[in-house]
Amino acid sequence: MASFQRFTILTFAAIFCLHRIAEGAYNNEEDAQALLAFKAQLHDPNFALQSWSVLTTPCSSWRGLKCSRRGRVVGLNLKDAGLQGTISGELLGNLEALDLTGNDDLEGTISSHNCKRFMVPSSVSCTKRNFSSPRRSLLTTTTKSRKRSAGVRWGLGIAVGIVSGAVAATLLALLTRAVLGCYAGTEDLKKPIIFNKKISPQMLAFLDKEDALTDCRVLGEGGNGKVYQVSLQEDFVVAIKCVRHHSEPEQEQEEGDPISHDAKQIRAELETLGFIRHRNLVQLLAYIFKSDSHLLVYEFMPGGSLQDALNRMAKGTLTLSWPERHRILCGVAQGLAYLHNESLGSSIVHRDLKPANILLDEGYEAKLGDFGLAAIVPLKATHATTDVLAGTIGFIAPEYHQTMRYSQKSDVFSYGVVIAQLVTVRSPTEQFIVENGGSIGQWLQKCLQSGNPVEAIDPALIGSGYEAEILLAMKIAVFCTNLDPLQRPKSSEVLKMLLQIRNPDPVPTDTLDVHSTGSDTPILGSSGPLGFVQSTSNTQSSSF
Questions:
Q1: 419-441: pLDDT as tens digits
Q2: Which of 101, 228, 244, 370 could serve as 357's disulfide partner, Cβ 3.0–4.6 Å?
């Protein structure tokens, strides 16, 4: 009899604990829904809310939260996060502490019983809620009472039922919920993420088919997949990049998880990239997860890639003037400086800057593509890229071979190689370059020091009248490809130098689309802060 009593007590205790755990999970899920709804209403240019994702729980990794021991969100600190938009009074009524100061572009009204502990900008007001009103969670829902009543029904059933049956039923219910939750997570993960209002889920529905892209035009192919030209509508063309999964199946799946951790992480990172906007960055329009690949839907660039243009220039079937080449270089520099600039909230390193990732429109306006992708989706090994060497041979900064890490200065090195290519129309891996300089930057430096730089210049540019500007561009390329990363300029400084090639007057910072920390004095002038001057001040009027 005593044994039966102990069994009964332990059973009730176990069920009570399971009920509390389940109730806590419901509450945590409710908080998550509220916070995600809050995030959806606001513009987040600095990506302060990047960690707020459906793939994680609020109290595990979300920025700015304070949680109770029971896993409820009780505090929110988003001071100086740069948030913009209108706050709904129904979203934050149950927080015990809130700090939104420094977000001067926020507006709206918050309803709470705790206004005295809320710190908000002057454009946001807090109205006191009556204590006698029902205590709301972060988000008012109609399902909460039903969820809580489930615990009562469980208790009544246990009190009048058979103890062992109740235990079995409880375990079965929890197991069923776990399975359904896992299935729901799988389905949500496979839904497309859309970043542009021109695209609807219906437009992308055809991609569910295994052979959806078979008959589409191939724009390019790399070590990790192909890029296709696809017409979503009669007047709406996009480029779809198909990135194959690189991991082995057994490595991709966590125990009990049908979707790999890598896939979830990739999805979360791509959500960040999808909201980046700049005229010189190729826009990511949508993302779709498939069992064997990631589909990235980009805006279509009718001018093709800079690599295509260089190939045609080398064959003599395309001629680009120096102003057109300079326009391309400035466009790439604008995009790169924007990625590197710390005002974005988190600096993005491209990691694979090369002509194939620079796309052109009809007017030779350049846009930088695949930014950040090399860090998110590792590539398969090819003749040009390997799992050990991230990047492309000829464009990889020398320090990477020692540190195995990419930095902003690594991107600047790659960009210097791009400048050299547009000036010379030569490949950095060309045997002549390797034999005579080791790298295209070192070869250009030798040509400049020899006093006969004409041998390095594309013959199509000789006699164009832009010789002085071309010479300065060569020197910038040498500057960017310095073997010591500390001696390379910042991307924002490179942009200034390029703009000053065609406009010797000081370039105001507010015209650069970036927050440069450099001086407003001409970098190519005698007082330039980068020490690039002695070799350039006497050559601006020279000719070949």
A1: 999 999 999 998 888 888 789 99
A2: 370
